[in-house]
Amino acid sequence: MYLYVAGRHSEMERSGIELRGRTGIAPRGTAGRHSEMERSGIELRGRTGIAPRGTGQRPVQKIKLRRMSQMKIYEAKDYQEMSRKAANILSAQVILKPDCVLGLATGSTPIGTYDQLVEWYEKGDLDFSEVKTVNLDEYKGLDRENDQSYYYFMHEHLFDRVNIKPENTNVPDGTEPDAEKECARYEELIRSMGGVDIQLLGLGHNGHIGFNEPDSSFAKVTHCVDLTESTIEANKRFFASADDVPRQAYTMGIGTIMRAKKILLVVNGEAKADIVAKAFFGPVTPEVPASILQLHNDVVIVADSAALSKIPR
């Protein structure tokens, strides 16, 4: 794992292309942390629908994962710089592979990143005409016209502002009542597209990515999840009241996310400092879903100084 300070390589950051052979700051105390986990393997559930704890759960599948992380952390001075750096990385993917598959996220954190992509598009620097997208998640029970649906969010902040083709954008269908059917459809859709080239993620206060909440094992594929009270509390600011926040959502599973070729996680603010340290410098555990990213072979974290204030240096 390496820590870089955004802005030191201005030319590289403008182009979004990574420089080879750089050295960084390797956190102390990380060597050998996962040897026991590597021997036993990581548990991933093979579910594709609603799987209440303790009832009707499919047998646990153990998958051997080796410690392969090439995680890089870019420290930005503030939210604006964080958003620009993240947009650089996404734009580089679009430029290098015009027909790429982007995995996209919602929430307040990536809005600045989307705004920066739109700005570059308006300047003629980016072309989304061949790009395909798949979103991480969607509330179950909200229709597309609901201004709190993630379908609405993506159109408001990105899709309707660039030249991406509507048929190339994909969000789970929150109006589909049959969870098993919708989750299987979405998983097959991602597979048929050849997988995700780069997956954008945010980070929840409890360590969730997508709507993969803390649990006793990692959910392997797209599934329907019951949202925790902490997630409902965090999201209620977007609704008239907490009672209006949906209690379930469709989300890519941890296994689906981990199959992305590259992962880009954005996080900002002092309120996220504890979970950043826990997720990326603590043990890999389904109780902190984002901790699994330590095992991916190509992860970039772009965070502001406040969010990184509690990591080992």
The largest beta-sheet arranges its strands as: 1-4-14-13-9-5-6-8
- Gyration radius, to the nearest Å? 19 Å
Dominant shape: globular
Helicity level: 25-40%
Question: At the first level of CATH, what is the class?
Answer: Alpha Beta
Number of strands: 14
The main β sheet shows up as: 8 strands, parallel
Order of helices and strands: EHHEEEHEHEEHEHEEEHEHEHE
Q: What's the overall average pLDDT, rounded? A: 83
The parts where pLDDT drops under 50 for at least 5 residues are 7-68
- What is the CATH architecture term? 3-Layer(aba) Sandwich
Q: Give the percentage of residues in beta strands.
A: 15-25%
Total separate domains: 1
CATH topology: Rossmann fold
Report the end-to-end length measured between terminal Cα atoms: 11 Å
Number of helices: 9
Structural class by helix and strand composition: alpha/beta
Structure explained in plain terms:
There is one protein chain. With 313 residues, the chain is of the alpha/beta class. It has a single domain, classed as Rossmann fold, CATH 3.40.50.1360. 27% of the residues lie in helices and 18% in strands. The longest helix has 18 residues.
Write the layout of secondary structure elements.
Elements (H helix, E strand, L loop, with lengths): L1 E4 L4 H6 L19 H6 L1 E4 L15 E3 L8 E5 L2 H18 L4 E4 L6 H12 L9 E4 L1 E3 L10 H8 L11 E2 L8 H14 L5 E4 L16 E2 L3 E4 L2 H7 L12 E4 L2 H5 L3 E6 L5 H9 L17 E6 L9
Parallel strand pairs: 1-4, 2-10, 4-14, 5-6, 5-9, 6-8, 9-13, 13-14
Antiparallel strand pairs: 2-3, 7-12, 11-12
